[in-house]
Design a protein that fits this description.
- The chain has about 240 residues and is α/β, with parallel strands linked by helices.
- It has a single domain (about 1-240), classed as TIM Barrel (Alpha-Beta Barrel).
- The chain has helices at about 50-65, 80-95, 110-115, 130-135, 140-155, 170-180, 200-205, 220-230, and strands spanning about 1-10, 20-25, 45-50, 70-75, 100, 120-125, 160-165, 190-195, 240.
- Strand 4, helix 2 and strand 5 (about 100) form a beta-alpha-beta unit.
- The radius of gyration is 17 Å and the shape is globular.
- Bound molecules: iron/sulfur cluster.
- Iron/sulfur cluster binds near residues 30, 36, 40, 74 and 137.
Amino acid sequence: MLRVHSFESLGTYDGPGIRLVVFLQGCNFKCLYCANADTIELKGGTETSIEEFVSMAKNQKPFFGKKGGLTFSGGEPLVQAKQLLPVVKALKEEGFHICIDTNGSILNDDVKAVLELVDIILLDIKHINNEQHQLLTGKGNEKTMAFVNYLNEINKPVWLRYVLVPGYSDDQDHLHELGKKLGVYNNIEKLEIQPYHELGAHKYEHLGWEYKLKGVKANTPEQLDKANSILKNYFKEVVIN
Ligand code: SF4
């Protein structure tokens, strides 16, 4: 059984086409800007069976069109890789397109088996600089960098996602470093710049946590354009999402 935080039908933001987005419970990071802070707690969520997933997917199939399908997000979906594997297997047997939205910090045999089956990995790169990554997420970025390498070895299509936090992850030198280190991988099809927003901040109050990015303003159009103009030197396609 997979533990689900929530579902979003008709999602257009997490992978190609129209998708059923499954937010799984539990994450091994604690990002300062997490918009889904209530998914971080490892316990909890609603246990959902393989049959329930397949039935939901079949019901929503008419909306998926040629490109759409399901995206497993979170939380960090690969925290539950062992339980996720049979669900992904069953969905692939029914011909569904599957994406995983991951922070790329877990790589074990179950994760490898999941990665083999899914169509596109939406890989969240939080920061290219290890210290800044630690500051933003509570963990270093070594495992994510090794994950990128592994995805290249198995030639798995990847869409990178990068949250541009003013004063934290928009330094121009770091953006060039990101491009130089990751722009060399042919399996990375595009990079999505995700503007920073405070929409999830109210959840912190509810959880009794401090929102440490209080006062950080949403990106200006100029900041987004600048990041775009740097990153498009390195990646096949860059979009602001
Ligand atoms: S990896 Fe994603 S779900 Fe986990 S804390 Fe960071 S933003 Fe939130």
